[in-house]
Amino acid sequence: MRKLIPQLSAMSIVAWTxxxxxxxxxxxQVVVELYTSQGCSSCPPAxxxxxxxxxxxxxxxxxxxxxxxxxxxxxxxxAQAKFTKRxxxxxxxxxxxxxxxxxxxxxxxxxxxxxxxxxxxxxxRKHAKRAPRVDLDVSRSGNTLRIxxxxxxxxxxxxxxxxxxxxxxxxxxxxxxxxxxxxxxxxIVKDWQRVEQWNGQGTYSAKFSLKGLGPxxxxxxxxxxxxxxxxxxxR
Length: 235
Known about the structure:
3 helices, globular, Thioredoxin-like_sf, DUF1223, Secreted protein
């Protein structure tokens, strides 16, 4: 489903190895954002693809449910207006004329219809091959999250985002385009916060308080919906 908007990106760098609760930069991890809606009949295949990606250690899949299809009969129980705003931000940055569901954004840099597995796989492979720009180390002790980053290639400034998600939930839909279906959703983003900006030079170290013990993702992204330069996950 497409939604017209006015004329309006990344490279994820870090794969993780768990050791004493920490993540260490070893391989490139690729962030895949799926913009989806429970009220979109075209979305279940993309939701299923994201579920498959959730089983991979080299990919950080995130489902962001948007609210602009709520008016057609079913209010998405996961939708947040700020996820729609983030999708529109990508559209402005990329010069896209439309936003739509299901849309996948790969490392903040390229978009693809979320139900096209071969194209998605090709883009993941492409971004995984790119050289790291930041060495990112994330660790957790109780409700305290520690982030350490080191520039490897004179990176530009980047925003630091902390993302919380629910691994899986099943929803019984009783109205709208998917009425009568029980659908399972994976890696459902519940909270996305931009917490700080780093100048991208030298090293960065900070601690943040977390609520609860669920999964957490740290993303370093160029400002104004630019490329993701590093990401790490604690399950």
